[in-house]
Amino acid sequence: MSSSNLIKNITSKDLNLSLNTIKTLINTSNLEDFGELCEKSDFIFPFLKKRITDDFVKLINKENLNAVFEFSKIYCEDFEDLIVKSWVKFACEDLTDKILELFENGTNEQKAYCASYFKYIQDPLALEYLNEFAKSDFEALMLNCAKTLSVFKDETILNEMKNVIKTQDDEFEKLSAFNFICAYNGEENIKFVVQNAFSSPFLSNILSNLMDFCGIEYLKTILGEDDLIKIFQTIIEKYPEEISIDTAYYWNFIDYINLIYSFNNQYSKNVLILAREKFKEYSTNDIYLFDFDKNTKEEIKNIAKLLNSLDLTFKLNENYDNMQLSACLSVIKELKLVEYCDFLIDLLNNANEEKTAQIVLVLKKLEKTNLINHEIIENMQNENLKAFCLSLI
Fold first, then answer.
1. Mean pLDDT of the chain
2. Whose CB has fewer CB within 10 Å in the chain, the N or C terminal residue?
3. Domain boundary at 281, 305, 331, which?
4. How far is CA 179 from each of CA 146, 160, 167, 183, rounded to the nearest angstrom?
5. How many CA atoms lie within 13 A of 61 on its CB side?
């Protein structure tokens, strides 16, 4: 079957056509067609992926179960449940032994599915492989091992990963450790991530995984107000260059915004003003929305409406920390608040080089770079930041 027909038929509103397409896929064990389905998964609506997965699992029986093993040669996060739940449906000692053998000797793609299987079927014989493959460079395998080790309450690799973050200099190793801990989850572990993540150059990646694995409903039960605002602020500041704005839909930003607003302090208000200005732009400019589905577009517009309805007034935070100051600078830039120029110039005289670059960028937006003492820029030691500032003035 051609890839266009496969995707068209399997996602059809005609449920019989969709079911028959899945039956044919299973009965032929056509790995190429399954690969096409996986490759096109980003273009299939989430509710259709769930329908395909549910129907696939229903159609699997003991006679055609080998098709699942064939399809396990291709890993696809979107259709992981299609493989794993088909195995779990017929879990028994013989099947588990077969999956243990696959876990030991299979490809990384197959091992990723196996690691997830043992989250449901907690065979202690799997622990050896879970601990071994938890250090895999294949991220899906590493993350699935983390989730399953959490179910087993085995903290061996968890503690190693925490030690990596505390003692290692390699930021890529630390990023992998952060992602493992996010997947492992647990209140104290998530607090550890939040306490240590903000100095990482990969903060966007870490917070994205944090939101994916935990979600705001869980985070609000374990984190304090400042941490919740800092996470929200960072996501807003990283949109859309480092984090796709469609995550606002998947991460339930309506609830997150209402939570931040309920804190009713100046820091939360300043961050929400920044979010309001950003989402005003996103919701009215098709360049940001053209490749999103209807539900995501509607959600982004609803977020913009909600933010616009809030009673928000900007003020400088008293005794601000670095994150609070960053929020203030971003709002001054977005709203072009030229009345704060004196504040910015005073701040520039005592700022570190990273903050200096941010202040110069704000002054550029305000068209007030003529107020900058060029000697401050010339004396900067970081050549990249210096060049950036000089390009603005």
1. 94
2. C
3. 331
4. 9, 13, 17, 6
5. 4
- The single-letter DSSP state of residue 137 is S
Task: Note whether 193 and 181 are within 8 A (CB).
Answer: yes
Alpha carbon 55 to its chain's center: 28
Question: Into how many domains does the chain fold?
Answer: 2
**What does the pLDDT read at residue 3?**
57
Q: Based on the domain organization, do 343 and 320 belong to the same domain?
A: no
Which pLDDT tens digit goes with each residue over 316-326?
876 788 899 99
- For the record, the structure tokens of 334 come out as 């977005």
Same-domain pairing of 298 and 241: yes
CB 102 within 8 Å of CB 110: yes
Among 331, 363, 385, which residue terminates a domain? 331
Low-confidence residues in the chain, pLDDT < 70 = 1-4, 318
Domain limits at 351? Answer: 336-393
Q: Which residues of 332-352 are buried (b: 16+ CB within 10 A; e: fewer)?
A: bbbeebeebeeebeebbeebe
Percentage of the chain modeled with pLDDT above 70: 98
Give SS3 for 30. coil
d(CA 350, CA 162): 35
- What amino acid occupies position 236? I
Report how far apart, in Å, the C-alpha atoms of 363 and of each of 327, 339, 345 are: 15, 11, 9
Q: How far apart are alpha carbons 49 and 72 in whole angstroms?
A: 17
Whether 388 maps to a domain, the answer reads yes
**DSSP state, residue 169:** -
In a domain, 203, yes or no: no
Structure tokens at 341: 């120029």
Residues 357 and 389 grouped into a single domain: yes
240/290 same-domain check: yes
Which backbone phi and psi does 166 adopt, to 5 degrees?
Answer: -75, -30
| pLDDT tens, position by position, 115-136 | 999 999 999 999 999 999 999 9
Same domain, 248 and 347: no
239 is a domain residue? yes
* Distance from C-alpha of 361 to C-alpha of 338, rounded to nearest angstrom: 13
Residue type at 252?
Answer: N
372: which DSSP letter?
S
Q: Which of 82, 88, 134, 79 is nearest to 111 (CA)?
A: 134
Residue at 319 is within a domain: yes
235 and 319 belong to one structural domain: yes
Are 242 and 323 in the same domain? yes
